[in-house]
Amino acid sequence: xxxxxxxxxxxxxxxxxxxxxxxxxxxxxxxxxxxxxxxxxxxxxxxxxxxxxxxxxxxxxxxxxxxxxxxxxxxxxxxxxxxxxxxxxxxxxxxxxxxxxxxxxxxxxxxxxxxxxxxxxxxxxxxxxxxxxxxxxxxxxxxxxxxxxxxxxxxxxxxxxxxxxxxxxxxxxxxxxxxxxxxxxxxxxxxxxxxxxxxxxxxxxxxxxxxxxxxxxxxxxxxxxxxxxxxxxxxxxxxxxxxxxxxxxxxxxxxxxxxxxxxxxxxxxxxxxxxxxxxxxxxxxxxxxxx
Length: 291
Description:
By secondary structure, the protein is an alpha+beta fold. It has 2 helices and 12 strands; from the N terminus they run H-H-E-E-E-E-E-E-E-E-E-E-E-E.
């Protein structure tokens, strides 16, 4: 069996390896102990610590950025909280001032209507406006104490509202124009044909006693005729929404112009009513058709 030499023994291969180790060791010792040993050590230390320094710098930058983001977030939260408080204050102020603003607007509109109507009227505030009341409906904050009497006409800036149904000492009840037992003398804007508007509920009515030969168009304005002696001629009542011939008379549906259940205040007309209200308060034809 042949003898195997160790790679680090005194064989030719082992001797060559030991020689290389000695040379590299001597070279390293010479470099480290030579005249530029400090620079070599500094270079070695700089190279060895460079990754650590880079990691530390990155860590400091990340912490600084995180702190800045946290500060920005806190500032944003503080600003958001301040804005919420301002919104709450504005909403509270609006809730307090809203009714007063609505009352002021209603009073301004009533004053404008009063200046256009060429006769003496009295204003009253609407206390209650129940929906679906057949006999009466709107409750006003004035009655006999304001000189009101039964059957006086009631109007608003938008149009005819109804008539006084009952009058108490300090309150009055209005029969709205859309009540089934309400009737108003009306005329059509174009043909001047006259009829009687009867209420059908839901802020609507129907004109009775019109001949089938009458030409009526949807969107046509409907005015008071003055023949009932409750309302003067020429006040807006509403607009035609539907026209079709019937067996005995023309069937004409009307949408009332005044929002009967959303009125803050009204005007009361005198009795007996003047024959005519001039000048006309609205156009004869509504643009865009009926509502």
